[in-house]
Amino acid sequence: MRIGLGGGCHWCTEGVVQALHGVDRVDQGFLRSDPPAEAWAEGVVATFDPAILPLDTLIEVHLRTHSGGGTYSPNGRYRSAVYVCEAGQDDVAMTVIARVAAERGEAARTLVLPFRDFKPSEDRYQDYYRTDPNRPFCRHYIDPKLDFLRAQFGHVVRPE
After folding, report:
1. Dmax over Cα atoms in the chain, in whole Å?
2. CB of 55 within 8 A of CB of 84?
3. pLDDT value at position 71?
4. Are 134 and 128 in contact (CB under 8 A)?
5. What is the residue-wise DSSP string for 80-120?
6. Would 81 disulfide with which of 6, 72, 107, 150, CB 3.0-4.6 Å?
7. CA-closest candidate to residue 110, choices 128, 120, 95
8. Is the peptide bond before 50 cis (omega within 30 degrees of 0)?
């Protein structure tokens, strides 16, 4: 099964999703949907086995590892979104988004959008965390997300 996930930086989203058991592939780059969300925004397309990693768990991990409540978007390239690729994914996404927002006591701002197109990042940015986890960016932004993931979702994290 495939699903697109947009949050903040796609390096962070890629690093988090790659750490999950049941994820077979993570394509990092830019996604877009239908108007008014047709502008390219950073994100990933995850290919995963829902028998190992349920869709609702994957979406919840995504929501809890990026700031989906804010409106900051340099040059419009960040969009908190779930890009659905298959029938039924939108219902699951909307349910999880509403539940997480209610738990936080905030409005649900993550969009549920049809996946329309993808273009990969430059080769030098692919597997950003895996190729050099000691980069200052990785240490500062991605490591805390992975620490949170291990603490809160340890049952779905790949062994280190």
Report:
1. 41
2. no
3. 52
4. no
5. -EEEE-STTHHHHHHHHHHHHHHHHTS----EEEE--EEEE
6. 6
7. 95
8. no
The answer to whether 82 and 49 have CB atoms below 8 angstroms apart is no
pTM, two decimal places: 0.94
Secondary structure class of 134 (helix, strand, coil): coil
pLDDT, one tens digit per residue, over 77-122 is: 889 999 999 999 999 999 999 999 999 999 999 999 999 999 999 9
Q: Is the dihedral of CA 120, 65, 110, 21 positive or negative?
A: positive
Which phi and psi (to 5°) does residue 78 adopt? Answer: -110, 130
What is the DSSP pairing of strand 81-84 with strand 117-120?
Answer: unpaired
Q: Which residue has the tokens 């960016």?
A: 137
Tokens of 61: 């991990």
Which ranges of the chain would DSSP assign to H, the alpha helix? 10-18, 55-64, 89-104, 128-131, 136-137, 143-153
Distance CA 95, CA 135 (A): 36
d(CA 129, CA 135): 8
User: Taking a C-beta distance cutoff of 8 angstroms, is the pair 46, 138 a contact?
Assistant: no
Beta bridge mates, 32: 117
Q: How far apart are CA 28 and CA 46, in angstroms?
A: 9
